[in-house]
Amino acid sequence: MEMTGIDQVDILIIGGGVVGCAILQALTSYDATVALVEQYPDVCEGTSKANSAIIHTGFDARPGSLEARLLAEARQLWPEVIARLHIPYLQTGALMVALSQQEQSTIVREITPKAEANGVSLQPLSRSEILEAAPYVNERVVGGVLIEGEGVIDPFWTTRAYCEHALLNGAQLFLGERVNAIEVETRRLLVHTTSGRVFSAALVVNAAGLWADEIAHLAG
Ligand SMILES: Cc1cc2nc3c(=O)[nH]c(=O)nc-3n(C[C@H](O)[C@H](O)[C@H](O)COP(=O)(O)OP(=O)(O)OC[C@H]3O[C@@H](n4cnc5c(N)ncnc54)[C@H](O)[C@@H]3O)c2cc1C
């Protein structure tokens, strides 16, 4: 079969956000050729660059849910990833405050048991402790909790570091390439971009974030 002009890889990832770049980096540990295509001129131009930057403990996730399980696993992984990729990170902790007795009761009766079930410890704080530690908090505060494990990370650095590490390990990156067609064949997928480029891959990972439904649709 004529393959001239087609970039061939084992695995092609569509989308250069934090998810796509993390997957790209993880796949470079395997004996496979991997590449990532991103529609914009750089990685981290989607949701990954404009979020609240919180590394979440998952204290308020529904116990037993997939979210709770993944956040618990992530809590174990982050320290090593942050150290290895030199990602700027601040363990700030998070303050949850109650502005009424009703909100305080929600913290005590609903949120605290949920956090305990998720293995996250909350430190109860009185009104005066909160106002002393955080004088900018609304004076109507009646109490609250400190979630020590919460912190903030540099989201752009995280995405870029995953990507750069992957490139150092031999991954390929194609920027400014918007995927606009996918042909599904028996043993491969042909992924077309608006610039006329064609990739042949045995496996395609859809990491297109909010556009993931469009990519899924292209693949039928
Ligand atoms: C306001 C806000 C606050 C948030 N706060 C937090 C927080 O504090 N902590 C936290 O962990 N999460 C937070 N999130 C969620 C987090 O930002 C997202 O879960 C994460 O960024 C998703 O990453 P992604 O790689 O899936 O998507 P994206 O970063 O959007 O990456 C998808 C990429 O796919 C590319 N793409 C799409 N279609 C194509 C195509 N056809 N061809 C080529 N490329 C394509 C896009 O250009 C994009 O770069 C927040 C989200 C929002 C909106």
Give a topology summary.
Blueprint: E1 6-14, H1 18-27, E2 34-38, E3 54-55, H2 66-84, E4 89-90, E5 94-98, H3 101-117, E6 122-126, H4 127-133, E7 143-147, E8 151-153, H5 155-168, E9 172-175, E10 179-184, E11 189-193, E12 198-206, H6 212-218
Helix pairs in contact: 1-5
Flavin-adenine dinucleotide binds at residues 14-20, 37-40, 45-48, 51-54, 56, 178-179, 207-211, 215.
How would you describe this protein?
With 220 residues, the chain is α/β, with parallel strands linked by helices. It has two domains: 6-51 and 177-218, FAD/NAD(P)-binding domain; 54-153, no CATH class. The protein has helices at 18-27, 66-84, 101-117, 127-133, 155-168, 212-218, and strands at 6-14, 34-38, 54-55, 89-90, 94-98, 122-126, 143-147, 151-153, 172-175, 179-184, 189-193, 198-206. The strands form three sheets. The protein has a six-stranded mixed beta sheet with strand order 9-2-1-12-11-10. The protein has a three-stranded antiparallel beta sheet with strand order 3-8-4. The chain is elongated. The two termini are 24 Å apart. The model has no long low-confidence stretch (mean pLDDT 96). The protein binds flavin-adenine dinucleotide (FAD). Flavin-adenine dinucleotide binds at residues 14-20, 37-40, 45-48, 51-54, 56, 178-179, 207-211, 215.
Compact summary:
The protein is of the alpha/beta class and 220 residues long. The protein has helices spanning 18-27, 66-84, 101-117, 127-133, 155-168, 212-218, and strands at 6-14, 34-38, 54-55, 89-90, 94-98, 122-126, 143-147, 151-153, 172-175, 179-184, 189-193, 198-206. Residues 14-20, 37-40, 45-48, 51-54, 56, 178-179, 207-211, 215 line the site of flavin-adenine dinucleotide (FAD).
